[in-house]
Design brief:
Helices cover 59% and strands 4% of the residues. The protein has 109 residues and is mostly helical. It is built from five helices and two strands, in the order αβααβαα. A two-stranded parallel sheet has the order 1-2. The chain has one domain. The longest helix is centred in the middle third of the chain and has 20 residues.
Length: 109
C-alpha cells in the first residue's frame, strides 16, 4: 500500500475535508495529465479502499474527488460495487453517505 497517500487521506478525513486526485497524485510521483498515471492512482486508491473494508472501516478513498465534479471518479464506484459495499444506483447518495461515515470514523480515530 502507498503509505504517503494513505496517511494523507487519513489526515484529510480527520479534518472533515476532501482532496482532489491532482493534489494526491504527486505523493506517488504521478501526473493526472498522463493516462497511465490516472490508472495507477486508481489502483492505489482501490488498494486502500480494499484495506479499509477488510478492517471494517468505511471507504477512505471517498475523500478523493474530481475537481470538476466534487465527487470521486467511476473507479471508486466500481470498486465499491465489486466489494459488495455498494449495491445501488445512486452514486451521489452513496458518495455522500460514505464520505459522512469516513469523516465520522477518522475524527474519532
Amino acid at each position: 500500500m502507498h503509505e504517503a497517500i494513505y496517511e494523507r487521506l487519513k489526515a484529510v478525513a480527520r479534518e472533515g475535508k476532501t482532496i482532489t486526485y491532482g493534489e494526491i497524485a504527486p505523493l506517488a510521483g504521478l501526473d493526472m495529465a498522463n493516462e497511465a498515471d490516472r490508472i495507477k492512482i486508481t489502483e492505489i486508491l482501490q488498494e486502500i479502499g480494499s484495506f479499509e473494508l477488510q478492517h471494517n472501516r468505511p471507504m477512505l478513498p471517498a475523500v478523493v474527488v474530481q475537481k470538476s465534479k466534487n465527487m470521486p471518479g467511476q473507479g471508486f464506484f466500481r470498486a465499491a460495487r465489486r466489494s459488495g459495499a455498494y449495491k445501488g444506483n445512486d452514486d451521489l447518495g452513496y458518495f455522500q453517505e460514505e464520505l459522512r461515515k469516513v469523516h465520522e470514523y477518522w475524527k474519532q480515530a
